[in-house]
Protein 1
Amino acid sequence: MDATLLIALATMGGLGFIFAGGLAIADKKLRVEENPLIGQINDSLPGANCGACGRAGCYDFALNVVNGTAPVNGCPVGGNDTAVIIAEIMGVEAGSTVKMVPRIMCRGGNSEAVKKMAEYYGPLSCKAMDVVSGGDKMCYYGCLGGGDCVEVCPFDAMIINENGIPEVIEELCTGCTMCVKACPRNVIEMHPIDRNVFVFCKNEDDPKSSKEVCNVSCWGCGICARKSEGSVEMIGFLGHINYDKLDESKIPFDKCKSGAINHLRPVIEDLKITDVQNN
Amino acid sequence: MELFLIFFSASIVNNFVLSYFLGICPFIGVSNKISSAVSMGMATTFVMVITAIVSWLIYHMILVPFQLEFLQYVAFILVIASLVQFVEMFIKKVSQPLYRALGIFLPLITTNCAILGLALFLVLRDYNFLESIVFGVGAGAGFTLALTIMAGIREELDLADVPKPLQGAPITLMVAGILALAFMGFSGLL
């Protein structure tokens, strides 16, 4: 009994030592030399592996930062906080970035867009709907409402509202751009979070066709471009805002019959304060 | 012929995942994409083959001569854990992209009960050295097969209209059950 116990202990102990020794040797022989800064930076990153930095995951971004092929503020998800930490690790100054968020350039939801006569039955995915003769909306440029952007968001920052148009939850959004890539109609664009004026339409058809498919589409009449002295340009039958030259006061919002060119957040007119001391 | 029967039995007739229900964790966890399923299957096969070799050697060269057969469980766990560590280091050295592609799943192979099951089976069935190796290869092949089939089905399921309460784990488990039923069709073949 005792002998067995001792032999068992000795054998297991011996085996343990042999394997531990083997692993120690293997560690020395198979060690991959790597700059410790990479590990430090990798630990400070959010770890979502979303690819918004343009690299293949967080570790790859850390590798690139150490090699000098990526900027310290290149992680949009980590934002300024992470940029500061990385800059500290690398011993450089951090630049500051404006938060970019996705905006949906379409307001043609279930109440505004004209639907086709045929109903769509198939996989619940915008990509699938787009392939099957463009889904059930008449407009071939607009949002399909199938929710690919919602599905792909790693941070649950997109929802489809009752009108069938996606909305961004700005507090959760990290600007990773997965939704932009997921949209088969390319209706989602990244803009700085404080930008407020957009042309909420991608319809490039002539006025007659544009009016037929949706009552908030850009007709292509060109009034905004003519009156805005360069803030808006017409490319074909679609208005594009030139954000470098943008002057909001020059844009004739009231002249846009469909309301395609519009503010994202309503602008409250200055309240007219009557002169209190009128006596 | 004997060797071929062992291979065929381990991979198809008595599939480790679908007949013995071993290794369900990576089966459910890694099978959402075909590419990751195949990678996991390959890594597991690699570990299985080497485990079969080393376990057999340890059992017959050390445990049996010292009459310590009862220590097989502990010894095999030691072997598997060390081997997976070694495989990790090896892959990291040889192919960094593969290492990063497998990611966390590589150390998770240690916890895969199919590997321990493999080691214990080859002791139970008293296979000789060559038979153990073939058994390891067959088990790995069967594991990869099960994972790949599951991954293929799950990729299709992603686009299907699954009822809300069943989405995710429930429908996966149901499909796994149906797959196991299908593989039962092989029972009695060998």
Protein 2
Amino acid sequence: MAYAISHDAEIKTVYEACALVDELGATSTGEVVVSRDGDPLGAVFLERGRVCWAAARGLARRLTELLVARSTLSPDQMEATFAACKAGRIPLGEHLVNRGALRGEDLRSALLQHTVESLAFLCKGGARAGFHARPGGGYSPKFTFQTAELVAHAGALSHGTEATRARAVMNAIFAPGEWAAAFARPLSSAFPEPVALYGDVPNAATTLLRFGKWAASALDVASTFTDDGALLTVSRGPRGASSALVAFRSEGIVVMGETGALGPARIMNRRAQQRRSKAHGAL
Amino acid sequence: MGIELTMKAALSSQHDAVALACMDTRSGLVLGLSLRSDVPRDDVEIAALSAAELCSAPSHSDAPDASDEPCDESFVASTNWVHAYARVPTRRDLVVVGLAPSNANIALLRAWLRKVAETVGPDA
């Protein structure tokens, strides 16, 4: 059966690949085939708008390596399991989890790592990507990814130190039920790059990046009349039932998030406590 | 009462605030500004001119071309100052900006600014 190709586009970065997936919409199921000069390089598999995994020519063994590093199986045992799953058309990762050879969160982290590495490989040097709608493969949603998570993981791989620092800041400042994201601003990039996430962030990479651009730009504006440590709070929604968007800089990282109406007061308090403990530590 | 007089009268009614301004975000003009003591006028003007950017925020829409939406209120809290912004309910293109030292009660400052914004509409 032939399936129509849609959304043919050039992709040069993981973000552009994710933006293409976002453009396909939340119901898209099928594969984005990536090629260069007509030569297929690999594919990104989608189910209901979520990325299941990405396959790149030459990187098949990398997933096995990532799984072995996290599982109780030896490389030989993993190879045998891989071959058996391939022959029986059984999803390898979920089979390993069901057998107790791998924890669910470790499978997820291996798939995330492999998908982002594959996307980076596919996009390197520029490529064409075309979407082919196909029936879904029945992937478990808990082992699939929103594009926002993929771009943040790609950012964390590029900016590891900033990502670690940002996670600590967000864990200390934000509360359950809130969401936040941290962005690095490398000179080489035209836009802030997400490096760490907290809570239920917007699903789409394009939406997350819009929030990051807003935060970076608003803090730049605020810095024309105030200091770099300023906290910006914008109330959203009707008064009394509103949420608040907050944005601030922390050692070169832009952090922004959405909180309840009382969130800004709590965040100001926690930041003041952090400043005080830093000052006392320096004495 | 003109906008300048409204700003002056409102500022005199709040002891924490040291400056008050009204910005027209559509024309880019500061319509009225009142200062207390030795606050640099330029700083307040710059804060007022930033109202359009600082009193808006992105929507949750996943549409790629979604633009920022005007918001009712915002504030910037820094080491020395609090800049608070409130949109005029009857003239959404106008934003009132209040400035107070950082040790001021932000909730009271914002509540006051909200009331000022409600009185500004007819004068602007």
Protein 3
Amino acid sequence: MSNKLIDLQHISKSFDGQLVLDDLNLYIRENEFLTLLGPSGCGKTTTLRILGGFEQPDQGSVIFDGKDITSLAPNKRQLNTVFQKYALFTHMNVADNIAFGLRIRKKPEDYIRDKIRYALKLVNLEGFENRMPDSLSGGQQQRIAIARAIVNEPKVLLLDEPLGALDLKLRKDMQYELIRLKNELGITFIYVTHDQEEALTMSDTIVVMNQGYIQQIGTPEDIYNEPQNAFVADFIGDSNIIDGTMVRDRLVEISGVKFACVDVGFGTNKPVDVVIRPEDLELYAIPEGAEKGSEAYDKVASRAYELNPGYFEGVVTDLIFKGVHYEMDVEANGYTWLVHSTKMFPVGSRVLMNLDPFNIQIMNKPESEDEQAVTMNEM
Amino acid sequence: MKKFFTRLYVVLIFILLYAPIGVLIAFSFNNSKTRAKWGGFTFKWYIGMFRNAEIMEALRNTLILAFVSAFIATLLGLMACLSLNRMKKRKRSIVLGILNIPMLNADIVTGISLMLVFIAFGQFLSRYGYTIVFGFGTVLLGHITFNIPYTVMSIMPRVQGINPSTYEAALDLGATRSEAFRKVVLPDILPGVLSGFLLAFTLSLDDFVITHFIKGPGFDTLSTKIYTEVRKGIKPEMYALSTLLFVGVLLLMFGIEKGRNARKKSQQYH
Amino acid sequence: MRCKEAVMKRKQNPLLTGPYLVWTAAFIVIPLILIVFYGFTDADHHFTMDNIMRITDPVTLKALGLSLLLSALATVICLILAYPLAMILARMKNGASAIITTIFIIPMWMNSLLRIFAWQTLLERNGVINQMLAFFHLPPQHLINTPWAIALGMIYDYLPFMLLPLYNALTKLDWNVVNAAYDLGANKRQTFFRVIVPLTMPGIVSGITMVFVPALTTFVISDFLGGSKVLLIGNIIDQQFTQVGDWNVGSGLSLVLMVFILISMAIMQHYEKEEEGAANIL
């Protein structure tokens, strides 16, 4: 268990009267790849800037390696930042950009030369010493920005949505590059992004933020499989979030049908939020014309029953081929369910739908605005 | 703490820039011939100024000059921009470079060069019994010349921003070449044309050095009039005149700014 | 994109190109050629270097030296005064920046003759400044008709011309680059000289040119604030043309002056390739 390298205590920050961070408490361990994930305006970039020293919190303190660095100037901190739009010095070539921090600290020139070569090798841009930033592609500029930061051997690297301006393929490649870099350098990465897929791919720990509050902290699997509130459930991956009633432990009622589930401790007959991932829903084709009670129908129903005593009957209303899977809308009991399946069910076909009890995620109803799922209109 | 010094610095420089002007304006209302004493508030210098025939003539000259030279310069500038837009880069830089010379050159050089060209032309004409008279005509030609780079500068960005597709769409829908130009292209570049005109107008109002060399005796603009009067000795009417010129240009600048903003707003609904 | 090329390839309409090209030739190119012509000839149109050599005449040389000295001084002081101001203005939030900067730029469009005239009122023996000193029982200062008054007039007149390009350059600066420099360990001084100044160099050069050239060639400022005692090279050239009537000498001296102007313009061109040209003035 690595020790706490950074401890943010009771951080609050307002801009123009707007509260951007409200009593934020967060600690970051050594060698962690920690991602601050959330929509625009949730406070993640502000948190990063407070760590870097470019903003001062109104309240609270930043403890780094046991020392309070809250009012320490950025140039005196042992962190380095990779800025969103790279912020390369366009009047200097690549080598001078990388050497900047080293020259400030008056390192000897041959030491600097070696470091430049090492850094360029690390980011796979050997030989680029004399190139000018303007002549480089976005991905190359990004890697130079990283090289410039890491060459100063910081304990922590702060990355502010560094891959935002790159195209999809390049972004995916760079994600793996960053993981490799972190492991090779053995330092802590603090990463800010609004892209949940990116966060899930790269992080050891994800901190989901909304409106200045931390919604959930956990590993990627935790966050994905067991979101703690509607916001997290909705923000990470696609999901169906629906009202339900917890009948008792391990039994939940959704749209009039009782389903077996695995959650306990939510009380008796209490209203709850139910989260179901689209890929977890199973569909069973009802043969053409088969009515309830008919032999053909019961055959399908009994197969469904094996998975979960509860099931819905519904109609496929939309079908999109997504390559990896089919995405379908299924209307059942008054709710339109989003379903991902590798099997195709044509529009208009009747289906039975249920899922493994393990895949039903029960959450308490939101207590405050920031825990609610963000609807399309609000975004 | 830092904020205080910052604000202080800005205020100090503001005072530095506007104090002399403020003093001038104050004295224009000073009811005392000498600047030593404040003799009370008065409009008499303004009245005196308006009664002074020479000053009024200079004012008339200045305004007509500004308007006509700005107009012609805008016209020529527009033609230049349209033509430059079609040129290849190399040729365009060269022509643009030459057009810009009066803007980059020192006023005095532009002034004397124009003076020489008129003199030389006059000498050439004298062989045929004609002469060149330095006066409104020569000054007008000079003003147009130094205004052109500025009108080009205003109009060029807009001309370069013309979407040729809209012009061709108009043709496609049945408009003639000149109709398409008038109804599609012209409104698009109009803001640049107008701001170029106003810019040229203001510059013409303000000019002294170039006018000084090519005006000849007997013709004065406000600037040259002020120059001669100040060299003779201060007349308080000059303060009144200066104040009016300051306020006039100020209003003009606000007009330009407001016009630019209004156009920006209306363009949002395109 | 093909449409644009198609439009581009259309032939030039001679009606369109004719007038302004003729104008350019007649009133821009030929006049400059004439200066060269008159500069190198005497009254009988014979070639001579006398006009150029007049620069070595003690009075003329002194005037040129003084012009160079004062305009260089004024340029440096304008730069020192304007840069901090430009930084402050560029960093102001949103609307305030543009409005307040406009307030500082407006004097640029006001009649410079009048603005110098205004300083004359302040600096005279009975002028406002001396009157204020008298009010505090301080001795009156001989301010006017000195080279310092002229330098002051230059600084006053041309400060907005230095401010505007600096302001434009600083607003274009991505401030994250400054943050990056801090992040990498630089203090404020290092960041300023190693990052901010090099990146705003085009603006600095533009500002220097826009102050130095007019300051070097002015004669109005020395007329109003220097009296007939202090002569600048501009005065001498002006006298040659308007009083003495010796256009040859006047042209010759102008040619010498042009050398300095051309050098400044060349330096400007070198840095202008990144900018959108003098459109920044607006």
